Amino acid sequence: MSGPPASIALVTGANRGIGFEIARQLAESGVRVLLTGRDRAAAAAAATALRSGGLDVEAGVLDVTDPDSVSAATADVASRYGRLDILVNNAGIRTEEYGRHPSEQPLRRWRETFETNLFGVVAVTTAFLPLLRRSAAGRIVNVSSLLASLTMHSDPDSYTYDPMFKSLPAYSASKSAVNSWTVHLAYELRGTPIKVNAVHPGYTRTDLNDGAGAQDASDGARTSVRMALLGDDGPSGSYVHMGEVLPW
């Protein structure tokens, strides 16, 4: 006699870096993971690597900036599973060059950054929300950053108070907007079992920041995984890192 079906999670931007580790750790926790990325071959290779370790991982194509891609991914999950239990909005970009003053970053960088980091998150979330509503306890995790925090950006004792990070105004603002979206969506869903939270992964060595960072991707995934597996008594509308609530 078979047991209850496994929870189903979809992770965006998961073919490498923190997203890949989120997929791995969720699968290691017994979750069926839909590992998605813009490039079909890269997503397939990443999923194959995890399946070779006995993990329940499938590959999917999802470009968060392409409405047709979002619609196709949503329809695929609906037809095969009829629901989604966990959505991790991990896909993100950093296109600004380090070393420039905030006012020197071209407007096109702002548009590119917001297209993926904010509008992509909103598009994917709203598309999958009907499937998350079919879950007994849906979880939405928005991967943010400490650079989203206006409080920390204004604190001379914070590592964000540095020319290196002040040269990323579009990235920082896009993540601040993700935090705002998190709060608004959590309010909308406050009477449902769905929980929505934003997470700071920690200063992680990835391609996004040219390999700089204080920890590796496996550590950077832990907060997202913790919030994805949150119990019924957990928070919603919060901004956290490793169990610590961060200032907005």
Structural description of this entry:
- The longest helix is centred in the middle third of the chain and has 27 residues, at 107-133.
- This protein has helices at 17-28, 40-51, 67-80, 107-133, 150-153, 163-166, 169-188, 217-220, 222-228; strands spanning 8-11, 32-37, 57-61, 86-89, 139-143, 195-199, 239-241, 244-245.
- It has nine helices and eight strands.
- The chain is an alpha/beta fold.
- Strands 3-2-1-4-5-6-7-8 form an eight-stranded mixed sheet, sandwiched between helices.
Brief synopsis:
This protein is an alpha/beta fold and 248 residues long.
Quaternary state reads single chain
Strand order of the largest sheet: 3-2-1-4-5-6-7-8
Order of helices and strands: EHEHEHEHEHHHEHHEE
DSSP summary, beta strand count: 8
What shape does the CA trace take? globular
Mean pLDDT, as a whole number?
94
Number of helices: 9
Please give the alpha-carbon distance between the first and last residues.
48 Å
The gyration radius over C-alpha positions equals 17 Å
The fraction of residues in strands falls at: 5-15%
Largest sheet: 8 strands, mixed
Specify the helix fraction band. Answer: 40-55%
Question: What structural class should be given to the helix and strand makeup?
Answer: alpha/beta
In the predicted model, the low-confidence regions spanning at least 5 consecutive residues are none
